[in-house]
Amino acid sequence: MSTNNTKAFETYESEVRSYCRNFPTVFVKAKGSIQTDENGKEYIDFFCGSGALNYGHNNPYIKEKVVEYLQNDGVMHALDMYTKPKREFIEYFENEVIRPRGFDYKIQFVGPTGTNAVEAALKLARKVKKRNNVFALMGAFHGMTLGSLALTTNADSRKGAGVPLYNVTHIPAPYMFPELDTVAYMERLITDDHSGVEKPAAIILETTQADGGIYVLPDEWLRRVRALCDKYDILMIVDDVQVGASRTGWFFSFERAGITPDIVTLSKSIGGYGMPFALTLLRPELDQWKPGEHNGTFRGYQLSLVAAKAGLEFMLNEHVEDAVRERAPFVEKFLKENIETIDSRITTRGIGLLWGVDFGAFEGDVAKAVIHKAFENGLIVERVGRRDSVVKIMPELKVPMDTLEKGLNILAKSIREVVGELK
């Protein structure tokens, strides 16, 4: 077979495939921040498995734990039975991560992906509060199954449901209308007997909207939402599937605001090694499930538990949160000095190691041209946001500084080339 032969995919794989259309090569190897294709070409990875590979490809510390478990014939599948990997993960997560941060959460093992964690959170919130409605933000992405999709606002994604999506009220995100006090707006909807809106069981949000276009929600706004939930007996759910696990510089993205959500959803990098894994964290008094009331065949997959514990150990032992905070100012300065200066219509924003370059002020699909040019130049980045007009920068969290700088330079070069062709 010739190298980079994509015929099998194009002939037999469903047309639903997406990322491969932006990165049309066959990858064979990945290590740290570098992916290599069948031709031996190397690419710097600023895509990071859409947030599933915070600790890089084939992290050696985590890999050693996974390989050792496999070689010792460890239990691979156990539904929700008691196993050593589950006990060790629970004890480590609770004693070394959750409780030292001042939180008190029980852990629910759900299906293997982020949308499973969100579906469990929604079901539990509605069960506990005995209300159907949920408030979500415009610009939100929470998953592609029906409950999560009802929260998600991307028009194309919603059309794919094929059925009406009910029981969600979408609230303008605070960046959309700076003159609108969106917390006061939510309170008015709740208290006005002519609002026509049912009081919600929960308010769900991402503290930084990633797929919405890299929008960091203000600390004070998050604190006011927490207070609103307390005042009106509403649960606060934080979706940390993509922006958790230290991506923003804190293991839990909401730590920067000093708030405690009632329910937290985790997936992607909580799996440690790109393993399928998802969790729903909940305050103990909310744990009103009956045995088996919410389940799934692959809840708490054993190899994921091994990798997840190792990932948490790596995060703490290698001071990953500090590493992110150290790199963030470098990225911000580079974007301001080397990318925003390319054209006055370009804006940048972000937090930690999650940044966006916004081409929304341009006519045409400039962001698409940029990610294709970047790929030609040896960099993998994706695009998000309204009209997919924002290029998302998401490197591994301990990316070497020279690799980080090289990747950013490739991005700047690619933008100059694309914008230059427009003039």
TrEMBL record:
Family per similarity comment:
Belongs to the class-III pyridoxal-phosphate-dependent aminotransferase family.
Domain of life per record: Bacteria
Q: Name one GO molecular function term.
A: diaminobutyrate-2-oxoglutarate transaminase activity
> Which parts pass through the membrane?
133-151
Q: Which GO terms describe its biological process?
A: ectoine biosynthetic process
Q: Which cofactor does it need?
A: pyridoxal 5'-phosphate
Q: What PANTHER family does the entry give?
A: DIAMINOBUTYRATE--2-OXOGLUTARATE AMINOTRANSFERASE, DIAMINOBUTYRATE--2-OXOGLUTARATE TRANSAMINASE
Listed name of the protein: Diaminobutyrate--2-oxoglutarate transaminase
UniProt-listed SUPFAM superfamilies:
PLP-dependent transferases (SSF53383)
The protein's matches in Gene3D superfamilies, at most eight in alphabetical order, are given as: Aspartate Aminotransferase, domain 1, Type I PLP-dependent aspartate aminotransferase-like (Major domain)
Q: What Enzyme Commission number does this protein have?
A: 2.6.1.76
Q: Spell out the Pfam families in the cross-references.
A: Aminotran_3 (PF00202)
- InterPro entries reported in the protein's UniProt record: Aminotrans_3, Aminotrans_3_PPA_site, Dat, Ectoine_EctB, PyrdxlP-dep_Trfase, PyrdxlP-dep_Trfase_major, PyrdxlP-dep_Trfase_small
Pathway, per record? Amine and polyamine biosynthesis; ectoine biosynthesis; L-ectoine from L-aspartate 4-semialdehyde: step 1/3
Q: Which UniProt keywords apply?
A: Aminotransferase, Membrane, Pyridoxal phosphate, Transferase, Transmembrane, Transmembrane helix
